[in-house]
Write a structure and sequence with these properties.
This protein has about 150 residues and is of the alpha+beta class. The chain contains four helices and seven strands.
Length: about 150
């Protein structure tokens, strides 16, 4: 759970960092959909159970974002991944986010496609993660947003 939350927070912070204003931010996110291809012989009810447990999970966090935090993002996400993640594409021009990152951890590769919009005081993101999990291929779709609520 901590790894997933850390990664989501890192992506949500990294994605809009170029346009964010320092201050107190409220960030929210949720798992929109999950699809897991299970190995042969595993009942579909197992997939349905995993999907029902993960879909709809959400978080909300208030966080003070300093200018130093903004100056380090989006590179900070990859520093925290200990060299296991890298961007294939990253573009935030015109108030839009278009990015692809790839992480290789524990013998597995996960691709994260991020899209969204941003301004100085808010952002919205959608991330589609695809890769091979312990049980097979999987896709996880998350959405997040952030709003600057004032000074720290």
């Amino acid at each position: 759970m901590k790894k997933r939350t850390t990664m989501l927070m890192a992506v949500l912070l990294a994605a809009p960092a170029a346009a964010m204003e320092p201050g107190m931010w409220t960030t929210t996110g949720k798992t929109v959909d999950i699809d897991i291809a299970l190995p042969p012989g595993v009942p579909a009810s197992m997939r349905d159970m995993i999907k029902s447990q993960m879909t709809g999970q959400s978080y909300s966090q208030d966080q003070c974002i300093t200018q130093a935090d903004l100056d380090e993002a989006p590179e900070k996400m990859f520093q925290e991944s200990e060299g296991k993640c890298e961007y294939e594409r990253f573009d935030m021009s015109g108030g839009k986010l278009d990015a692809v990152a790839v992480c290789k951890m524990q013998g597995q590769t996960m691709q994260m496609v991020m899209t969204g919009t941003h301004s100085d005081n808010d952002y919205q993101t959608r991330m589609t993660m695809t890769g091979q999990g312990q049980m097979g291929n999987m896709t996880i779709i998350t959405e997040g947003s952030g709003t600057r609520t004032g000074d720290c």
